[in-house]
Amino acid sequence: MSSTEQGTSSAAPAEPTTAPESAAAPEVPESFYYVHGKDKVVHKVSAGALQHSALIHGMISNLGYTEEQAKANPFPFENIDGDILQMVVDWCNQHKGKPTPPEDTNLPKQKEKLFDLVLAVNYLEIKELLTYCCKQVAMMVKGKSPEEIREIWMIPTDAEDEAAEKEAKKRAGKEAAGETAAAAGDAK
Amino acid sequence: MPESRFPLLQLPRVVLLECIENLDVFEIILFSLLSKRAKSIAKLIRLNLLDIHITCEGDPQIWFKVPNVPWLDWVIDYNKEKDSSVYPAFHSILEGPKAVNFLILHDNGNVIGDMKHMVEHICEVFSSPISEIVIFEESLIEWIIKFQPTIRHVRIRKGVVSSIETIDRILKNIDVTEFFGLEPLTIEEKSKTTEPIPSRSLFVFDCSWLTLPSILNGTNSILRLYDSKLTPCDINTSDGRKRIFPKYGKRKRKRKKNFNFTETEKETETIIFSLLSERTKSIAKLIPLNLLDIHITSEGDPQIWFKLPNLPGLDWVIDYNKQYESSVYPAFRSSLNGPKAVNFLILHDNGNVIDDVKQMVEHICEVFRSQISDIVIFDESFIEWIIKFQPTIGHVRIREDVISSVETMERILKSIKVTEFFGLEPLTIDKKFKTTEPILSRFIVIFSSFWVTLPSILNGTNSIIRLYDSKLTTKDISTILNEWQMGTKLRNLKYLEIEFVPIQVNTSYYEILEDLDWTDYDENDGRPRTVEIDDDWIITLPMEYSPLNLIRSDGMIGSIVDIGSKWFGEVRKTRISFVVWSKQS
């Protein structure tokens, strides 16, 4: 079989990366779910991509929705901004069914956006993405002086912390007094 | 000024701690200094520092290590050479097998006070004690008595102690458990002490104040006393039986010196030392040290790699090179690659490099009583050499076209016992050659695997099999999978990958599946995404297709995770990947 022998080559890969022309049968059709954020824009996401989120995965695992039911009942995440939810959905789609690489350079560079993303990712329990985000947060202060760290991370001084604590106590006292007065008024 | 800000303290506690855990130890220290709140957050990281020591090498310095990275030192250095605006500065250096990270802070004239505060802060945040102090300024004595009166190592610099009262105070109030060293001091000649000094090891210059009862009543293990006022009679008492220093006979000390030389120098220097003569070789063999992971390879230059026990992040490489004039050899070089470091000893490739490599390996294996664990055979003569020198070996990889005859192939299969990994790159031998014997190693990867037959696979005990350009047929592969499912053969199989060229061009790979009892229900929960060969080699499995599952009676699941054909020019190659797993694993 000369054709076989011609195929012998040092280029034969140790880690073949080419996908086969066709996959093994039978394939189960993929199911989709719908989510929306504060802006009410609905995103269609496959169950495979949503597996990254422990929160959503737990919610959908026993639902058994049909396509129509899923479409009619999008999961509302009113505490997440629309653009942040879009980022999360994009990340889940990009990493669907793939092992996550050690670094992810596609995270937002703007610190405000990263803060919202961290909160959303923590809420949605997406462990790998949270790990990347925390690394990114740590990288912000690489090679910085203490005062620069204080500035970047908005760390109050002890005096500021004490003043804020006093203010909070004062406010709590006023609120308690107000409630007592209101209760006394009700009793009359 | 930073362009935008990140309200770190508003993060949920768990996320906040994960962010802090991603900081390096200097960054944690700088963060913890920002406020009481930041300090209490840093304390929650629960990182203990090791070997905290205070010293003064030109600049006052605080040294420490973090657990599991013994080759990396962290140093806070107080310096005043430059303008105060350049501080704090960060700097790293590589010194042989070790690396040092520096945080350089400004010495603003109150360096001793600053350093004491910093040490107290570090000890509190990381719940770690000081292990060593070099007292280079007298105020450190009262401070250490108050802050940490029990300490392993204390060394007092020349001229710091000026009275016998201070010595008394040190001896009475600081419990030195391991080493107490006292450099020359200026106190009155008549001052004496008769009290024992409790540390295990004692090293004192100007020890006129130290008397015989102080020595005899002590429990010191090592004593080194200079400018002593002890008499010959004190040292070897009059009845000739009671010696102060029984362990320090002349012969023993000389022998100890030899050991110190070879044990503390770099390993490559020990190797060079051992090559000087039969006598130096015998001395080097006395070092109780085994090398790990000795492997021979050729990455451009022929190389011998090895590691030392307890230093997994450090590789030592002897490299044979001919780029430069012979006079520059041997040369030493180190490189740092991420968390790992490599030390090179570069020797001259004088045209007889293969024999030089063989002799060097034999020498190293003998001196360090160690075995070769891995060989990349890049020259045919290594085959007979390894059969003779060490026929049982963990890993063998044979480079492309090194084997040119059936006889050599048979000799390898019969005479080298490869226990872990056997890899064979493409070769050009008679295509009629076949073997029905099993290939013993746990993991085999064979390019040009036309010679590997069905009985060879079925009768083997391999755990991972990867065959390329195989002559196995769809029927053969179907038999392999059937036998695995019945549990009669291939009980150890974890992963199988075969690329073959169908004998008939129109043969469909579906023929493999025809006689198999595969399931079409979902058994994918927990299917592995990777197959781990060893620490450095992980195969990533395709996950995009629903697999076909074969279930064995003991509950093990075999998943065909990839099957398909692809044209390479005019050749259609078919590939199948099969992984074994269980729901418990």
Task: Offer a few descriptive terms.
heterodimer, A: 188 residues, mainly alpha, Potassium Channel Kv1.1, Chain A, 2 domains, three-stranded mixed sheet, 9 helices, 54% helix, flat, disordered N terminus, B: 585 residues, alpha/beta, 14-stranded mixed sheet, ten-stranded mixed sheet, 17 helices, 31% strand
Describe this structure in words.
The complex is a heterodimer of chains A (about 190) and B (about 575). Chain A is mainly alpha-helical. Chain A has two domains: about 30-140, Potassium Channel Kv1.1, Chain A, CATH 3.30.710.10; about 140-170, no CATH class. Chain A is about 55% helix and about 5% strand. Chain A contains nine helices and three strands. In chain A, strands 2-1-3 form a three-stranded mixed sheet. Chain A is flat, with a radius of gyration of 26 Å. In chain A, about 25% of the residues are buried. Mean pLDDT of chain A is about 80; it is low at about 1-25. Among the domains of chain B are: about 130-250; about 435-585, no CATH class. Helices cover about 25% and strands about 30% of the residues of chain B. Chain B is built from 17 helices and 26 strands. Chain B has a 14-stranded mixed sheet with strand order 14-15-13-12-11-16-17-18-19-20-21-26-25-24, with helices on one face. A ten-stranded mixed sheet of chain B has the order 4-5-3-2-1-6-7-8-9-10, with helices on one face. The longest helix of chain B has 15 residues, at about 110-125. At the A-B interface, helix 1, helix 6, helix 7 and helix 8 of A face helix 1, helix 2, helix 3, strand 20 and strand 25 of B. Chain B: It comes from Caenorhabditis nigoni. Chain B: This is F-box domain-containing protein. Chain B: InterPro entries: F-box_dom (IPR001810), F-box_Sdz-33 (IPR012885).
